[in-house]
Specification:
By secondary structure, this protein is mostly helical. It folds into three domains: about 1-75; about 85-185, Receptor-associated Protein; about 190-260. The protein has helices at about 1-10, 15-20, 25-50, 60-75, 75-105, 110-120, 120-135, 140-150, 155-170, 175-230, 235-260. Helix 1 crosses helix 3 (about 25-50), helix 5 (about 75-105) crosses helix 6 and helix 10 (about 175-230) packs antiparallel against helix 11 (about 235-260).
Length: about 260
Amino acid sequence: MEIYKLLARQMPGLKLKLLQARMTDTPEYYVRKTVFTSFFLSFALLFVVFTFLPKPAVFLALPVAFPLVFFYFIGYVDLRIAKVKKEINKEIVFAGRFLIIELESGVPLYQAFQNLAKNYETIGTYFRELVERVDLGTSMEDALNELIAITPSPELRKLLWQVLNSIKTGSEVSDALTSVLDQIVREQQIAMKEYGRKLNPLAMFYMMIAIIVPSLGTIMLIVLTSFLGLNLSLVAYMILAGLIGFIQFMFLAVIRSSRPAMDL
């Protein structure tokens, strides 16, 4: 419909983001899917609120809830891009070394790309597409340019740029790859050291907020209710346990998300 096309036109970078996220949806279909998901989820959330607060005026908040949920879910493509980028960065060093060894062993560049595509799950899909484009008649330079355009990882983009420049200038590809790979390794080592420095305060906050405070707070709550003669129901304790579990889950998610995506 025209409304979905209009919304998609308001997001000019969406098409490239979908390609980088390895999603086959067109921008119009992705927007349409997000609109329907946001509407039904907004209605479901308001219905849950209505069960606790049975007033029809609750559903008047739908025009406010729908845009908030829509803009939240429209950013799902960015989460997919971040996930793909992490998977690429886990393999980039090993894939780069594999490519260098292949080229130094006398394997042609095209055959080296084929071998790399067979041995690496995430990066291999990009080189498999590159080989397919070349097989269909696209030149190696054009295929590399297309691959660079849809690559979300700056590290893989650097590696591909070096290959492309070496092809254009006629220089040795393995030498150019070695220099850029050394740079990528140094950057990953620096990122890992920074992560180590961040981990200590994160662990301290986790111990304080997710373990010590909930434990002492629960004990004090039980003591106070016994002194005041209050009886908390099982549901209240279950809600409290769920809240503590949610806090711990959030801290673990923060720690995992801050860890650099690499396997050195």
